[in-house]
């Protein structure tokens, strides 16, 4: 049975093309070109929709997310989980874009977060790399050795309970 006409399956070649860029800025540019291209109205409309969503998101989150996909592409499940735990802990730190997004969307209901930094160009490679640095001693995810059953280390003061 073929997927319905409006299924995202039919859009996967477009998505693969647009999101194959090496940087978030490249993805943005690819979507912007497709959004204004003549000749294929459904493709252009979908590119505009994705571009609008991309530009609403936290520039830091976009760059960290792309880096996480790259780093974890061939990583073990254990390493992926460790990386994701580090990212969650860093994104949950006070003053992070996560809290700004919650404030803008759920508290003030303005839908206008003040991301810091506000522009993709201002998110430095050093800022992105800091999200992936090991957590302080005793705060790393401990999932045990192979076949050990593994555990999650108890949350430390100031860290979100998962």
Topology diagram in text:
Elements: H1 12-18, H2 24-36, H3 41-56, H4 59-72, H5 77-91, H6 97-107, H7 125-131
Question: What is the compact description of this entry?
Answer:
The chain is mainly α and 162 residues long. The chain contains seven helices and no strands.
List keywords for this structure.
single chain, 162 residues, mainly alpha
Describe this entry's structure for a reader:
By secondary structure, the chain is mainly alpha-helical. The chain has seven helices and no strands. The protein has helices at residues 12-18, 24-36, 41-56, 59-72, 77-91, 97-107, 125-131.
- Average pLDDT confidence is 89
Largest sheet: none
Low-confidence stretches: none
Ends distance: 40 Å
Q: What's the number of helices? A: 7
